[in-house]
Amino acid sequence: MISQLPFELLSSILEEVAYSNASDIQHYTYGVDTTSTKGKVQRALRGRVANDSLRWLSTDAIRQVNTQWHDWACQYAFRDLYIRRWRGSERWTQSRNLHTIQGYPSKDVYYRDPYCSLRKTVALFTTHPSLASSVRRIFFDGFYGIETTALIFQVLRCCDGLDSVALPWITLRYGSDDDWSHLLQLRQNGTALSSLELLAVELKQSQIKDHARQVDKHPLRSHAVDFGHLRRIKLSGSSNLMPINDDDLVAISRTARLRELHITGTTSITTKGLVALSRASEATLRVLEHSPLSDDGFEHPNASSTGDGSHLCHEILQCPHLRDLAISLPTICVDLFSEPSVEWAGDVQIRAAGVCGQLSSPGRSCDAQQGFFNILSQARSLIQAQQKRDIDLNVELYIDHFIFEPSKKLVHADLSLGEILSDGSWPVMAAPSSKGPYGQTGQYGKDERAYQCVHEEEFLEGLQKGYISF
Fold first, then answer.
1. Which of 157, 321, 402, 406 could disulfide-link 379, Cβ–Cβ 3.0 to 4.6 Å?
2. Cα-Cα-Cα-Cα dihedral of 201, 207, 213, 219, to 10°?
């Protein structure tokens, strides 16, 4: 009997069955549309069915076999949940078949509670706690009010096996210290939340001006809120209502011992907050990503934003287990690549505005130019040292609108201005580049031209002759 198989083997079989069943399920939802057909009714694609809904539908037959299979199917379906705010409006027809519709569809708009999914999740988990215990990862999208924040924490209190959660940034303002301490605490079953994501968005001006939203319960001031069990924090996006800032990161750093730290697309966090968290986790940190954002793309941090005048190149080297690195720094120097015992591997991406200790940019003086090319040489030495340890390392440096690949001695950039200033005599050996202003993603979608790549020596020649500057 298949039910007598070891649970691990049975689970693998049932997962394959569920995956096969999912291929027979409709993956998209549809409605009717008259806007593009001059009044003629036709079926229109509305959107994709959520993955958690697909998992529930694909295990419908499995749940009806016996208790063991039913429990497995519930755990499989509720493992990852995506709860989002409903957006839009709907008009309902009087028939399921398009050809039986008489005349135009009804123009009556049926109201739908945008927070219905969140309210129903609270009711479901309250009455069926075993389902809530199956949740391992949960994502909340579109809930930015005080009432919905309370509902979110009601859901989280029911999930006693939660491993990863993605929350709106505003929960750090509207949530109480009791809410956060309960979310982050070590549970009776020995588990604890290991990954926390806080996602920020820009709100409407009417929402910002609403005085009822100007509430901050300051949960981070409580000593009961302990981030010591977290292994990963990701802060992404920017907001115009009480955004996460350096003071929040300093408060988190008092108890945090992270393995991964991601800060991307933010405008309210400087290197002061970054340094505070990395110092607190220097003995455990393995992944560090810091990509601040401005209106036009990546913005380089202010050199004095750390507050204590610390040398950031040395701060990074204080994390001995750091392996994956993508960071924006105000300046860099040879010290950043001077430690051959680092564990860096894979693609290391570093964005900077200049060279440490140089008042001018790298392209404005001979000393600054020589200092920068010494950095490229030191980066090559580190890559070679890692290769001797069987570690594959590739370093990319982003300075202004130039991308440097020290291992290949290549520079990627838009060299069209240099061609004009040199009357077409420079560059001599340019080749097309797949890289754009922001790395492998190609063009940013503005007015940038296609990038070219040249050898470092030819790039230096263009600098010295004034064909290019950076």
1. 406
2. 0
